[in-house]
Design a protein that fits this description.
Low-confidence stretches of chain A: 243-251
CATH architecture of the largest domain in chain A: 3-Layer(aba) Sandwich
Mean pLDDT of chain B: 89
CATH topology of the largest domain in chain A: Rossmann fold
Largest interface: A-B, 40 and 33 residues
Strand order of the largest sheet of chain A: 6-7-8-3-9-10
Number of helices of chain B: 15
Oligomer: heterodimer
CATH superfamily of the largest domain in chain A: P-loop containing nucleotide triphosphate hydrolases
Strand content of chain A: 15-25%
Number of helices of chain A: 18
Radius of gyration of chain B: 22 Å
Strand content of chain B: under 5%
Helix content of chain B: 55-70%
Shape of chain A: globular
Distance between the termini of chain A: 35 Å
Structural class of chain A: alpha/beta
Distance between the termini of chain B: 8 Å
Shape of chain B: globular
Largest sheet of chain A: 6 strands, mixed
């Protein structure tokens, strides 16, 4: 049963140069509860956790632990006062034994009493019913067991607050159940658990309360029974239900002829389950779903960005082999990746080089564009898309996010694609640029290019897409067209309430 | 919308550090000994009238290093790491060269053939290094540690442990002076190698690909660049430089000593790349910077010898310079500078209120 407040954060703010990651966020955790921290990418979940664990220091705000105000300066400091974190990637030492991992870095003594350590570890493992021997090498245990060992280590260090950051994303169902067992056990011992996850089912299975963040701000704190799934989804995405139902779907459009791109049973090593997909000339469709649902993995599979493990692809009716980006590019496919910073921009290179790179690669290593050609391309697109840059020779990293995104868009427009995939082209950029990008998408479609458009903002997708593929748990959960294209209906499909 | 903070773009500014270092050495020498840079015409042992003086010996002596520095720059830019096996590789190249020369009289045809043979041999080793880095994703320094360790043993095996001498007018010309030409031949070889690089950079996309891969490998792959091949290629290019450097040194000395030929040159080559303003973590590169870096190192060495610093102590003086250069470019110092700049900008913003 939930007890008194174990941890409270009041008015926490944190800014990075150019971004306000957290604005005046409150958060509270009772002892003996499992509290879900929810929000889409960029909502501020990880910043909040990092402030709490001392990775970042907050710009303002107060943290109270057990009623006493505390200042947390480092992850070690957090651990010392009883706040432990278990990350998605295991941060233990895989080549040491389970017992060593439980005790490593904790004693201040120079010598190790091995027998005492193994005995202690064995009793901890028994207490938490973790099915592993203390002397086993950690790398030989399953990921779930490794995670449980990490948790046991944290709990044994007398933690009052346990943060689980996406612990289930690499676990299978059985392992998730085991982990939940352990979490419930800890809860009954009075540990407060903060559970960060993208899986709605899991939230409703184990959590007591939910805190939702969006764009660095607190949306609200809810008892689990007061917040149905659909409302949770709408809160994460920033639309109230009433408001949602009022936005009507755009008119139904019919697309004739053979698909420009067609996939049958396509699947890739990134874990997306085999799916069928097609797109016709002039069509704009979209993949939607929560983060981790497989929407990005699907389009990466289409572009050959991940290792393809099965399926057939047809371009304009003819069978084609696409197992690498260059093959996709030669078939006239362009791909603007989800993570602009790590997959899109080549940050030290100039705006000009960033614009021409894809077309240049298609032309070939031994056939470089002349300087004047390259500059003409750059000038054309800087003007056409209104890219704000000091010059075409400015490194792309010194542009704002929206302008960087326009450069990447220019890169693909320059290749004159017949099929363009845009994964989150509008994320983290200002409203004006967002609208410009949507307009470009619609104009491309009018010119006969087919476009797959992915966005976390459903409203944006409704404005551009005539067909939506809804993903859930790396599977296609539904395909919506025409009158089904309402925010309400989409969210119900995402939440799994519509079969 | 706040603009992202701007760092100085790489243009001429990256050449400031190496040029400044060179300038400091020149000024120091001019003040210390005004005759340091005087060049005179002398008649050498073989009866040629040639240029002589510290300036000539710096330009001449840095030849192998300058060539290796160019290749090292490409590897550094593409892989974000360094090849430490170039000295050992030069031992192999030199041994193969001598082995082929020994099989006949040192005619021009045979010399060319021997050069091609040693080029091919060392490029295979380069491909091996490159494969470890590009395909097996091993850290370049660790990957090339293998050849660094084994290279001189392989060179030993090539000539059965002997240190054979080679002679012949043409070989002597290559390592020294052509008759009637007062400028040492290695200087021309550096110019020729530099010209080859310039042509490659002009007529292929080598620069764009190498920089893109070095800056952001993931993004490069998503733009259709074969990142594995580019990394591999960079090591093969360096191997060709190793062959040229090895052959120059063999021609200079008229013999191959697999134990000592171009010993420790890898460290100087890496240093030249660093002095040249290139990030050792890869990305944008400047060949000119690295070549200047090579001459800085040679000028430093020559200066130290001119100051009658004992040869054993020269390395420790060089080390001091390395410490200074590395410290200036270290992440800690950079971070401090960035921090200072950021707080300055924030303060100014707070004071001015303008964007």
């Amino acid at each position: 049963m939930p007890g008194e407040i174990a941890l409270s954060m009041k008015g926490v703010s944190k800014s990075f140069p150019g971004v306000r990651a957290l604005q005046n966020v409150d958060f509270s955790l009772r002892s003996g509860e499992i509290h879900a921290l929810m929000g889409e990418n960029g909502a501020g979940k990880s910043t909040l956790i990092k402030v709490l664990t001392g990775v970042y220091s907050g710009d303002s705000g107060e943290i109270k632990l057990g009623g006493k105000s505390v200042i947390i300066k480092s992850p070690q400091g957090a651990q010392e006062i009883g706040i432990s974190t278990v990350y998605q990637e295991i941060t233990l030492c895989p080549n040491l034994t389970v017992a060593e991992n439980i005790y490593i870095g904790r004693g201040k003594k120079a010598f190790v009493n091995w027998r005492w350590m193994e005995k202690g570890a064995a009793s901890i493992l028994e207490r938490f019913q973790i099915p592993v021997k203390a002397t086993q090498q950690l790398a030989k245990c399953s990921i779930a067991v490794q995670q449980m060992v990490a948790i046991a280590r944290a709990v044994d260090m007398d933690c009052k607050v346990l943060i689980l950051d996406e612990p289930t994303s690499s676990l299978d169902e059985q392992e998730v159940l085991k982990l939940f067992g352990l979490m419930r056990d800890l809860k009954s011992r009075g540990v407060g658990i903060i559970f960060v996850t993208h899986f709605l089912d899991q939230v409703y299975e184990v959590c007591d309360r939910i805190t939702v963040l969006r764009n660095g701000e607190l949306v609200g704190e809810y008892e689990i029974k007061d917040l149905p799934r659909v409302e949770l989804v709408s809160k994460m995405m920033g639309k109230e239900l009433d408001e949602i139902s009022q936005i009507a779907s755009p008119g139904e459009k019919k697309f004739e002829g053979e698909p420009v791109y067609e996939a049958l049973g396509l699947s890739s090593a990134s874990g997306v389950k085999p799916f069928d997909f097609f797109i016709k000339k002039g069509e704009v469709n979209g993949f939607t779903g929560l983060l981790g649902s497989g929407r990005s993995e699907s389009v990466r599979a289409i572009f050959g960005a991940d290792k393809i493990i099965g399926g057939k692809v047809k371009i304009n009716g003819k069978e084609a082999k696409i197992s690498s980006p260059i093959q996709a590019m030669k078939q006239g496919i362009g791909y603007l990746p989800e993570d602009r910073k790590s997959d899109g921009i080549i940050d030290d290179l100039s705006v000009r080089d960033n614009i021409i790179v894809a077309l240049q690669v298609m032309k070939g290593f031994f056939r470089p564009f002349s300087k004047s050609e390259a500059e003409r391309f750059a000038d054309t697109y800087i003007e056409a898309l209104g890219i704000k840059t000091a010059s075409k020779n400015t490194p792309i990293k010194s542009l704002s996010g929206g302008n960087q995104q326009k450069v990447i868009l220019a890169r693909w427009l320059l290749t004159n694609p017949q099929y363009l995939i845009l994964d989150e082209p509008t994320r983290g950029i200002d409203v004006g640029t967002k609208l410009e990008i949507q307009k470009i998408v619609l104009k491309l479609a009018a010119d006969g290019v087919c476009v797959t458009f992915i966005s976390s903002e459903i409203e944006e997708m409704l404005r551009t897409c005539s067909r939506l593929i809804v993903m859930r748990d790396r599977n296609v959960a539904g395909e919506l067209l025409g009158s089904e294209l309402t925010q309400d209906h989409i969210m119900r499909t995402i939440a799994g309430e519509v079969k | 919308m706040p603009k992202t903070l701007r760092r100085p773009s790489v243009s001429l500014s990256h050449l400031i550090v190496p040029l400044l270092a060179l300038l400091v050495i020149v000024i120091f020498n001019v003040i210390h000994d005004p005759s340091f840079f005087s060049v005179s015409l002398v008649v050498n042992n073989s009866g040629n009238t040639v240029l002589s003086g510290n300036l000539v010996s710096i330009l001449n002596g840095a030849s192998e290093l300058a060539i290796l520095a160019m290749g090292m720059t490409i590897v550094t830019a593409a892989s974000g790491g360094q090849d430490i096996s170039v000295g050992a590789g030069a031992a192999i190249a030199g041994s193969v060269f001598v082995k082929v020369i020994k099989s006949g009289n040192s005619s021009l045809g045979l010399i060319l053939f021997a050069f091609l043979a040693c080029c091919l041999a060392i490029m295979l080793f380069g491909a091996f290094n490159g494969a470890l880095v590009a395909i097996f994703k091993i850290q370049p320094m660790i990957a090339t540690l293998i050849l660094f360790t084994a290279g001189r043993s392989i060179a030993y095996w090539v000539n059965g442990g002997a240190t054979p001498t080679v002679s012949g007018d043409l070989l002597g010309y290559l390592g020294g002076f052509f008759p009637g030409m007062p400028v040492p031949t290695p200087v021309f070889i550096v110019i020729a190698t530099g010209a080859l690089f310039a042509l490659a950079l002009k007529f292929t996309n080598l620069r764009l690909y190498v920089q893109a891969v070095g800056i952001n490998s993931t993004s490069s792959r998503l733009n259709g660049i074969n990142t594995t091949w580019i990394k591999l290629l960079s090591f093969i290019i360096l191997a060709a430089c190793v062959a040229i450097a090895g052959v120059i040194r063999v021609c200079r000395l008229g013999l191959i000593n697999h134990e000592t030929i171009l010993l420790d040159i890898e460290m100087d080559a890496i240093l030249a790349v660093a002095i040249g303003g290139n990030a050792l973590s890869g990305g944008k590169f400047s060949l000119a910077g690295s070549v200047i870096g090579a001459y800085v190192i040679q000028a430093l060495t020559t200066t130290l010898y001119a100051l009658k610093v004992p040869s054993n102590a020269v390395k420790s003086y060089k080390a001091i310079v390395i410490i200074a250069l590395v410290a200036v470019g270290s992440p800690v110092i950079k971070k401090l500078l960035v921090k200072a700049r950021d707080s300055f900008l924030l303060k100014r913003k707070a004071a001015g209120g303008a964007s």
